[in-house]
Structure prediction request, 228 residues.
Amino acid sequence: MDCGDAESIALDGAMTLQAPQLVLHDYFRSSASFRVRIAMNLKGLDYERVEVSLIAGEQRSDAYLEQNAQGFVPMLVVDGEPIIQSMAIIDWLDRAFPEPRLIPEDAMPRAIALARAQVVASDIHPLNNLRVLKYLTRDLGLNEQTKERWIATWITQGFEALEAMAGDGQYLGGDTPGIADCCLVPQIYNARRFEVPLEAFPRLIEIDAACMELDAFQRAHPDAVKPA
Prediction:
């Protein structure tokens, strides 16, 4: 599946370099994958998607583990060279394709943007991803009700902080979406999927709605890339 429309990189308005071949291995409902799809769409990049079914355990296949020792999604393969971890992928995208910039260059705005993004990527998401939830129920014997309390607790605590950190811009990135918005929107999607109340977070809901008006976010949404 090809996504985006960029085919070459212009230099000085004249000569062009062929853009690298980008292959994104992801799972449609993975929030880490969702955030990378958003970033790639915001950059207007042309890429191939390869669905890796976490439910079927395809991420544990020998072929996949040869490229990604963690066995996680997403993985971006650039001209045959794999990059793993969604935040590392987005950082590479921002360096390889600087416009539009998702992570500010100046030190303080950069720190603020990354702090907002990491509230989701480091503090909320890891506690609620599929392998952790499976461990809670399968290995520790938590029932469904207790698992749902676990999910809601960490989303709520993270969102309480992020609501206070959100600022006054249209997006978490200010006037344009940035790395924090790439992280927020998938986490809002997860919160709604797990029926976590969101009324206490009006700024985050407002920012999510503004993001979802943009084509880059719409095309990255799990419903847009869900296997037939």
The mean pLDDT is 93. Residues 43 and 98 are 8 Å apart (CA to CA). The chain has two domains: 2-100, 107-219.
